[in-house]
Amino acid sequence: MFKACIRLSPALLAAALLLSAAASARAQGSTTTTKEARVLVGTLFSAGAPQKSGEPEKAVEQKTREQVARADGAQQQTTPEPSPQPSPVTPLTGEQKVKRSLRGAFLEPSSYAIAAFNAGIRQIGEDRLSHKDTEDELADWGSTTARVFATRTTYHFFGNGVYPALFKQDPRYERSPNKGVGRRVAHAVSRLFVTRGDNRNLQPNFSRFAGAATASALANVWERSTPGHDRIGTDATLKRFGMSFVSGAIGNLFREFSDFF
């Protein structure tokens, strides 16, 4: 009877330890799996069973550790890794916006190339005067390029620098998160009318409207009219204002699909 009590006491001790561990795990919010519970039960009851002769206690302890380690490894492999969160966009200061607008207006070669191209298109659409030779045409093209460049730089300075600083809006283009071509085109065009504020909320693009109006009005200072083409006055100002949105839509499409170029 004494031997039976000796054999029974480790079993009772194992059950008590098991209940204690379960209560402790529940109090700590543990997520122990069924497999780990089975390993724990087998480990505790194996501790109460009589050992074979010649089997050291350290070997049993090492075997128990290996079983727990394998159970922990299986749980870690099945746990999904958290998806990376996008880094927040840092708003630009007013000084950064103005410097960025000046850099884009004067230091980017595309500003000069676009002004020269638009001047050539304008000159082709005008009537060719009989008293002007090739050198005169080249001189007119150069002066037209300078006027177009002045209008573009005025818009960049006010529309991408001064007004975004005043209205607290982000002048940077935000590409579409969608992958469909149609949705990306719609997104590029919509950014002419809405934009992100410094608080990252969508709002009307006051900066673009004010910048286009300012540049269209100031162009009356350096523009000149040619026979049959009035470039000064209210009608010419409204025409430049409308065409600025056409060129802006083309620019946004290039920014949106720049990965294809």
Taken together, the total number of domains comes to 2
Radius of gyration: 38 Å
- List the secondary-structure elements in sequence, H or E: HHHHHHHEEHH
How many β-strand runs? 2
First-to-last CA distance: 90 Å
Are there runs of 5+ residues with pLDDT below 50, and where? Answer: 1-8, 27-35
Description:
The protein is mainly alpha-helical and 261 residues long. The chain has two domains: 7-24 and 32-76, no CATH class; 94-260, no CATH class. It is 68% helix and 2% strand. The protein contains nine helices and two strands; from the N terminus they run αααααααββαα. It has helices spanning 2-27, 34-48, 57-78, 94-106, 109-125, 134-167, 181-190, 206-222, 234-256, and strands spanning 194-196, 202-204. It has a two-stranded antiparallel ribbon. Strand 1 and strand 2 form a beta hairpin. Helix 1 packs antiparallel against helix 2 (34-48), helix 7 (181-190) runs antiparallel to helix 9 (234-256) and helix 8 packs across helix 9. It is elongated, with a radius of gyration of 38 Å. Residues 1-8 and 27-35 have low confidence and may be disordered.
